[in-house]
Each structure stands twice: as C-alpha cells, then as structure tokens.
C-alpha cells in the first residue's frame, strides 16, 4: 500500500496527451513491444469523470495498433477498472495542468500482476521537477528507478531508452 492518495476528479484531463515515461516492477512488460508500453494520445472524462476514455497505441511486432479503453470508476476505492491485456486498476496520483502520473496494476491472463506508473504530458518534455516527482512516485510504489523507460523523444511510436534521473537524496 502507498501513502499517495488517489487524486480526486473531475480535473482538467480532457485533451491530447503524450506518454513521456513508463516504469514497472515487471520491466519486460514495458520494453519496446511490451503490451504495457502504451503511447497515450487522448484522455476524456465522461459522466462527471465516473468513466475515463483513454486512446493509445501499442507497438506489437513492429506495428502500431490503436486502442481505446474506458476506465470505470469504483466509487469505494476511487480507482478505475478496465480490460486491456488482462484486468487493469488505475488511478491518477499526480495531476497538474500539463502533466499527469497514473498508477496501474495489471493482472494478465496468466494471473501475473504488474505494478506500473506512467507519466503523460501536454508538452514535449518533463521538467526536472516533474522527472523527480515521477521517480519519487516510482519509489513510493516499490518500482526501481532503473526500470523507467522514456518514450517521448519522438512523436512516433518508436523504441527509446534514456533513463529519468534519480531524485537527489
């Protein structure tokens, strides 16, 4: 369990977003071609943010595939649930006008659980402070910072690997 509260919606999340970085405790799921290496394109609140529609791409076998999923809010936990590559339970743990960070727990068809986070932005890069926030959120969820993959460097869905720096101690 984490000390990070889920951010309460509705927030200004509607619009075009780009995945900047992903991190996971099961790193093969977020490597190039991994099913959880998702490239966000659009988020949309529906019904007062009881549902969140997410349009994204995943590169599989060198081909970009577009997906749209709808996360349905569980009023008790505040988390959203959707089906994609198994079951996903996600929440927005950080939200600023230009950057959001989501935490996701994926349980794949084999029952394997992957704990992951994703930073998405409305501009081309994260500030140093936002990178540090991402690293702090990863640490809070027990995800090693070396499991971070930077995916924003181009507008295309292509493999990228520079790391986000570790926050100062």
From TrEMBL:
One of its GO terms (cellular component) is extracellular space. Residues 15-150 form the Lipocalin/cytosolic fatty-acid binding domain. It is found in: Secreted. InterPro entries: Calycin (IPR012674), Lipocalin (IPR002345), Lipocln_cytosolic_FA-bd_dom (IPR000566), OBP-like (IPR002448). GO terms for molecular function: odorant binding; small molecule binding. Gene3D superfamilies: 2.40.128.20. Keywords: Secreted. It comes from the Eukaryota. SUPFAM superfamilies: Lipocalins. The keyword ATP-binding does not apply. The keyword Secreted applies. Belongs to the calycin superfamily. Lipocalin family. This is Odorant-binding protein.
């Amino acid at each position: 369990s984490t000390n990070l509260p889920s951010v309460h919606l509705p927030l200004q999340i509607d619009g075009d977003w780009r995945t900047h970085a992903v991190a996971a405790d099961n790193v093969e799921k977020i490597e190039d071609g991994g099913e959880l290496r998702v490239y966000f394109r659009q988020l949309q609140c529906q019904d007062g943010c009881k549902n969140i529609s997410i349009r994204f791409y995943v590169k599989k076998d060198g081909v970009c595939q577009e997906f749209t999923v709808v996360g349905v809010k569980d009023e008790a936990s505040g988390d959203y649930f959707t089906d994609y590559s198994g079951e996903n339970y996600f929440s927005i743990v950080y939200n600023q006008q230009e950057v959001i960070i989501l935490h996701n727990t994926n349980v794949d068809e084999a029952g394997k659980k992957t704990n992951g986070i994703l930073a998405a932005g409305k501009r081309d890069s994260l500030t140093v402070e936002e990178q540090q926030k991402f690293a702090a959120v990863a640490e809070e969820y027990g995800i090693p910072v070396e499991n971070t993959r930077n995916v924003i460097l181009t507008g295309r869905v292509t493999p990228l690997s520079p790391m986000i720096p570790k926050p100062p101690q």
